[in-house]
Amino acid sequence: MSSAKKAVKGDPARDVKIRPASAEDIPSIVELDEVATGHAKPEYWLQLFEHFSREHVERHAFLVATIDDRVVGFITGEIRPFEFGAEVCGWVFALNVDPQMRVHNVGTRLFDEICKIFARAGVAKVRTLIERDNHLVMAFFRSQGMMVGRFIGMEKDID
């Protein structure tokens, strides 16, 4: 049975622990991400972890949520100064929770913790980007008090 599918004993909401990610967590992170996106990206997650672990660590956060030492969720983000001309703020790059654990406030706990990290660094605002059709993620971030900000994402296919 894969690590993302193992049964969780006890009270999941009470037993969730949030901690910094370690290199040993990367396979579980890759697996959770693949469940959500349909794409395995082990090199991406390893490179992000290595980058966050060695450069400007006070501006980066890569956290995991565990129950009984099993990774059931993760969040990554960093503080970026004057991105797009805006004030310094925290950016959430990725948030993912095992679908079986979503009703246990794992995502909320991860989001609250990254916001605390940003606040301790003096940041007063957090931002993220969401695919417009991803209603589940949009509803989650709205439930956390986030709303549409002053920027509009635009893109163009390059031939």
Describe this structure in words.
It is a single chain. The chain has 159 residues and is α+β, with helices and mostly antiparallel strands. The protein has a single domain, classed as 3-Layer(aba) Sandwich (Aminopeptidase). Helices cover 33% and strands 22% of the residues. It contains 5 helices and 5 strands. The chain has helices at 12-15, 26-37, 42-54, 106-120, 135-143; strands at residues 17-20, 60-67, 70-80, 89-97, 126-128. The chain has a 5-stranded mixed β-sheet with strand order 1-2-3-4-5, sandwiched between helices. Helix 2 crosses helix 3.
Fill in the keyword field for this structure.
single chain; 159 residues; alpha+beta; Aminopeptidase
Q: Please state the overall shape, judged from the principal axes of the Cα atoms.
A: globular
Q: Rounded to an integer, what's the Rg over CA atoms?
A: 16 Å
Number of domains: 1
Low confidence ranges:
1-5
End-to-end gap: 43 Å
Structural class: alpha+beta
The mean pLDDT is 87
Order of strands, main sheet, comes to 1-2-3-4-5
Q: What is the helical fraction, as a range of percent? A: 25-40%
CATH homolog superfamily? Gcn5-related N-acetyltransferase (GNAT)
Q: Tell me the major beta sheet.
A: 5 strands, mixed
